[in-house]
Amino acid sequence: MEMTITQKILADHAGLEEVHPGQLINAKVDIALGNDITAPISIEKFREAGAKKVFDKDRLVLIPDHFAPNKDIKSAENCKLMREFALEQEITEYYEVGQAGIEHALLPEQGIVVPGDLVVGADSHTCTYGALGAFSTGVGSTDLAAVMITGELWFKVPETIKLVYSGRLNPWVGGKDIVLYTIGKMGVDGALYASMEFTS
Predict the structure, then answer these.
(1) Are residues 148 and 87 located together in one domain of the fold?
(2) How much is the pTM?
């Protein structure tokens, strides 16, 4: 059976000929993302591990976008911690408060994520980059810290749900309408630990 897009990307990044749903693999990450809520925890774990340098200063993206402008002292401290870490590590893809906007719109706009990439981010909406033909998933802050150190992470190869759409859209009906309809049919956990591939 032919591998899905997700399986092809994961196999390529794990250095394997093929992978199968349920298989545990270790794969190299192209882009790792942290924001002003999650990155401070990752930075703390990075330091606790005794790490001195991130795996690649050009492939770690840090964006303070949740508290811009800062809503209180704690959020300002989180942004300050991230800024200082970015300067210390010479992170090329650090976007200052007010320079960026929504992280998941910024990465595609800047050409940081491209088709075939393997992307992890300490944010549940990281799966957004699947729309670009990348494999992307949210991870915890501790997992992000591990990627910051090694550039790799373990993954359980997900099952793939192939969604085939046919026909023509009515006027004023767009992609978001289709996705909301699909979510309504599947339920909130209908694709738990699965990748969804859309086609027509």
Answers:
(1) yes
(2) 0.90
